[in-house]
């Protein structure tokens, strides 16, 4: 009888069935089946997207247990370490010796997988065993692990896995000026709308999709960078979307154009395309600029999607794309008693073992976690790098760097908008290049602030967290 039962189980499951198990479970109201072996289970669920048998071993399943003994009910944090789960010796099994140690329970809407683990393979928090051995209780009964079947589906199907943690980079849709115009983008949304969950989600979705979005009707009367009754409205907007990041410029800061300035950003000259603070190891992900005052003529705000440039170079200049992904560019800030320095490649490929890893957005171009370009703060190229020490490789990089720069100046790549008082732009500082054109002011008004923006940086992780929470609440 056992031989006939095992014969009906797929080969992936048969390799797990080294003891008298080899049975299968049907998931109610679906075509999903779970084949049970001595070292793990095999999931098949064509309708749910599991078209090929997917194996879950019992160590992973025990680590994923959601029972009250495994996950604290209020903090939702694990009560043991992955390394506390025993590894069964060859020929042994973590399962309790019973007729059916793996079974399905729960409602049709929320089925669970129940797995009985042997007391001799009980999970004990090793920290507690070492520090407070008197608190450790000897297991005298099987532990029943409880795992929602939805969790298995989420890990077995690539699209569901990305959706389960709201893969923030998969939302991106690279653009040029024509693409934005054809699709009625970018988003402009009023501050009263942003104060609603639906409006906030719309703003964050647009910022992740296009790399930037605009908020209108943001009050300009209060201008203080400090918290309190006179705090600028930008502080409330920034804390609505995420967590403010304090830098050497402060928490909120001013971009004020005056006739006698010592910083090019505070003059009326053209300001080329760039990203901010690339001399940091972890530059700010999101930036906000809120127009408070504007009595000048000109000063258009310009934006370019560097991810679109990356796509163009991947498609048409593959060797140059690879040079920009492999060559370090140095950035520094040496001024006013500060000395910041860091190197980044232009194209920062998402590492396979890091959280931004995932499928390419379109075509075959590798997933990019960030793009880095900021000529005003670029240091001399680091010739100690092997990628730059070789003359041929350095020439290839410079050719690629020149092409990237030229593409940023292509009028078809540029979105242009003149921010007016009360308008604020939110943009991804690791993707969207920003700049502004020169402008004219009344030279007789010395000391007069002709153009005043309030700025802030917001932590990327906090923006992504807010986005995920709003998505999950839908």
UniProtKB/TrEMBL annotation:
EC number: 2.5.1.141
Superkingdom of the source species: Eukaryota
Positions in coiled-coil regions: none
CC cofactor: Fe(2+)
Record domain TauD/TfdA-like: where: 195-457
Family: Belongs to the gamma-BBH/TMLD family.
Protein name: Heme o synthase
Species: Malassezia cuniculi
């Amino acid at each position: 009888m056992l031989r006939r039962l095992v014969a009906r189980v797929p080969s992936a499951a048969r390799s797990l069935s080294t003891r008298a198990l080899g049975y299968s479970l049907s998931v109610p109201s679906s075509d999903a089946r779970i084949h049970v072996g001595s070292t793990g289970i095999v999931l098949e669920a064509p309708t749910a997207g599991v078209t090929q048998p997917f194996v879950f071993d019992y160590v992973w399943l025990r680590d994923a247990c959601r029972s009250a003994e495994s996950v604290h009910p209020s903090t939702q944090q694990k009560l043991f370490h992955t390394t506390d789960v025993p590894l069964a010796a060859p020929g042994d099994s973590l399962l309790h010796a019973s007729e059916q140690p793996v079974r399905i329970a729960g409602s049709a809407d929320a089925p669970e997988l129940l797995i009985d683990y042997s007391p001799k393979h009980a999970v004990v928090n090793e920290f507690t065993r070492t520090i407070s051995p008197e608190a450790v209780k000897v297991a005298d009964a099987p532990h029943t692990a409880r795992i929602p079947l939805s969790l298995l589906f989420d890990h077995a199907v690539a699209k569901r896995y990305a959706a389960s943690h709201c893969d923030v980079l998969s939302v991106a849709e690279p653009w040029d000026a024509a693409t934005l115009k054809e699709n009625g983008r970018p988003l402009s949304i009023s501050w009263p709308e942003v104060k609603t969950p639906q409006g906030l989600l719309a703003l964050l979705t647009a910022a992740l999709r296009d790399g930037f979005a605009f908020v209108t009707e943001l009050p300009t009367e209060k201008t203080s960078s400090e918290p309190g009754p006179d705090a600028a409205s930008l502080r409330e907007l920034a804390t609505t979307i995420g967590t403010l990041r304090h830098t050497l410029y402060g928490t909120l800061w001013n971009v004020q154009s005056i006739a006698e300035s010592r910083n090019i950003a505070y003059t009326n000259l053209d300001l080329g395309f760039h990203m901010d603070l690339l001399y940091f190891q972890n530059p700010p992900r999101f930036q906000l600029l809120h127009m408070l005052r504007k009595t000048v003529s000109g000063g258009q705000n310009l934006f370019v999607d560097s991810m679109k440039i990356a796509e163009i170079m991947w498609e048409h200049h593959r060797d140059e794309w690879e040079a920009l992904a492999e060559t370090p560019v140095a950035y520094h800030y040496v001024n006013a008693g500060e000395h910041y320095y860091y190197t980044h490649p232009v194209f920062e490929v998402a590492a396979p073992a890091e959280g931004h890893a995932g499928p390419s957005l379109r075509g075959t171009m590798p997933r990019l976690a960030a793009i880095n370009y900021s000529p005003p703060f670029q240091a001399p190229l680091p010739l100690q790098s092997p990628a730059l020490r070789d003359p041929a490789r350095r020439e290839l990089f410079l050719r690629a760097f020149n092409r990237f720069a030229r593409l940023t100046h292509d009028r078809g790549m540029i979105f242009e908008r003149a921010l007016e008082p009360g308008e604020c732009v939110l943009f991804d500082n690791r993707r969207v290049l920003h700049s502004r054109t020169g402008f004219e002011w009344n030279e007789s008004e010395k000391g007069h602030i002709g153009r005043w923006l309030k700025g802030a940086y917001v932590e990327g992780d906090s923006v992504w967290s807010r986005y995920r929470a709003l998505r999950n609440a839908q």
